[in-house]
Design goal:
It contains 15 helices and 16 strands. By secondary structure, the chain is an alpha/beta fold. The chain folds into two domains: 128 residues, Aspartate Aminotransferase, domain 1 (Alpha-Beta Complex); 247 residues, Type I PLP-dependent aspartate aminotransferase-like (Major domain) (Aspartate Aminotransferase, domain 2, 3-Layer(aba) Sandwich), CATH 3.40.640.10. A seven-stranded mixed β-sheet has the order 3-11-10-9-6-4-5, sandwiched between helices. The longest helix has 21 residues. The structure holds pyridoxal-5'-phosphate.
């Protein structure tokens, strides 16, 4: 029963979230996502979305999605294996695999679902004549929430989970060395390709070497890198000259590649087939709508046709990073369009982000517990859609607010 006591407890929980600075306020956009957006009747510069290539509102993406609605309708009212697979789903999977240099790929409703589906299937299932098995997962402590939650779906009796400190290759190696004699069925090393709070890249070359040395599978969640890094936008593996050499990749269509929704796993053909047959977040959840599928195909085509978008997002990011540094702000070094400006203090960060918005610049402030205590920051995200004029405008707003708040 929904008792008075329960209501009270829920209300207390919400109050506690507010008290701890964890309560999230959803700001309402009034119109399309883009370099500029409307909020509360006012135009502001958007520096907080994952719209890295500006495809969220690209005319070709909109056209593809409208054509899909005309041709295939709105929804498919089915999961993939019953009545929810159109030829275009297969086309997108094939194109994705080609683009990422993998043998095959499988679509999920989101990257979150893809990660849940992969780990639960790979570790809980017994294959062939196996009667029992034990696997091991080695995970960077800052991996995305979807990876952490994926582990919760892995049964304790089937999997040993080991968390290594962020980016700590020697500790990862030590763990693998300790486990050498343990006869695990699989060892899986899992890392984000790009860590979204800092824009830092995983050290894939070193992690790959360890995966080879200790015969582990390497899983890279490249959500923030596909459509951003590498000479064709194929992500961190391509950036590091490891294109086609990572065992399993997961990613999203919800960021650079159109920004709507949709995720995937790409990798070895038999793993992809296993997921198609056994993965519950794939089997028992609806197939992606045609408009999203056609727009995602278009997003992959646009990456090839408009390579300048990739150059532009990197160029814009470098320019922004350098100019903000010149103003005297403490900026984390990096080569990704995530540009964190460190303010340290949570209260100050809240005030500054509010002031920036009042002045026409939308940027997200992050503080404990989302980032470590004392490491509060503004997280800027740069897009190919930003013009130089808009970036200059953002920098000018940073200068004014920075001076007013005595940060610079
Ligand atoms: C590393 C990483 N993995 C997975 C996700 C989830 O992606 P999706 O929105 O497609 O579920 C995100 C998005 O925040 C992410 O940053």
């Amino acid at each position: 029963m929904y008792s008075k006591k329960l209501v009270e407890n829920i209300e207390n929980e919400l109050e506690a979230l507010k008290g701890a600075g964890k309560f999230k306020v959803e700001r309402e956009l009034e119109g399309a996502q883009g370099a500029e957006v409307n909020i509360a009747g006012k135009k502001v510069l958007m520096f907080a979305s994952n719209n890295y290539l500006g495809l969220a509102n690209h005319p070709e993406i909109i056209k593809a999605s409208k054509e899909a609605v005309d041709k295939y309708g709105f929804g498919l009212s089915s999961v993939r294996f019953i009545a929810g697979t159109e030829t275009i789903h297969k086309t997108l999977e094939k194109k994705l695999a080609e683009f990422l240099g993998t043998e095959d790929a499988i679509l999920y409703s989101t990257n979150f679902m893809a990660n849940l589906g992969f780990f639960a299937t790979m570790t809980n299932e017994a294959f062939g004549d196996e009667t029992s098995h034990l696997d091991a997962i080695y995970s960077d402590e800052l991996n995305h929430a979807s990876i952490i939650d994926a582990f919760k779906l892995c049964k304790k009796e089937n999997v040993v989970k080991r968390i290594y400190p962020h980016g700590d290759i020697p500790t990862l190696e030590q763990m693998l060395e300790e486990d050498k004699s343990k006869n695990y069925r699989f060892k899986i090393i899992v890392t984000d390709g790009v860590f979204s709070m800092e824009g830092y890249l995983a050290n894939l070359p070193e992690i790959k070497k360890l995966a080879e040395k200790y015969e582990a599978l390497l899983f890279v969640d490249d959500a923030h890198a596909v459509g951003v890094l590498g000479k064709t936008g194929a992500g961190t593996p391509e950036y590091y000259d490891l294109h086609g050499k990572i065992d399993i990749l997961s990613g999203t269509f919800g960021k650079a590649l159109g920004g709507a929704i949709g995720g995937y796993i790409a990798g070895k053909a038999e793993i992809v087939e296993l997921l198609r047959q056994k993965s519950r977040t794939y089997l028992f959840s609806n197939s992606l709508p045609p408009s999203v599928v056609m727009a995602s195909i278009k997003a992959l085509d646009l990456l090839k046709e408009e390579l300048e978008l990739l150059n532009k997002v990197i160029e814009n990011s470098e320019y922004f990073r350098e100019e903000v540094k010149k103003l005297g702000f403490n900026v984390l070094e990096g080569n990704h369009p995530i540009v964190p400006v460190m303010l340290s203090d949570a209260g100050l960060t809240q005030k500054v982000s509010r002031k920036l918005l009042d002045n026409g610049l939308y940027v997200v402030g992050l503080w404990f517990p989302v980032v470590p205590e004392g490491a509060a920051r503004l997280r800027f995200q740069i897009s190919a859609a930003h013009t130089k004029g808009q970036i200059d405008q953002a920098i000018e707003i940073m200068r004014e607010v920075g001076k007013e708040m005595k940060i610079i």
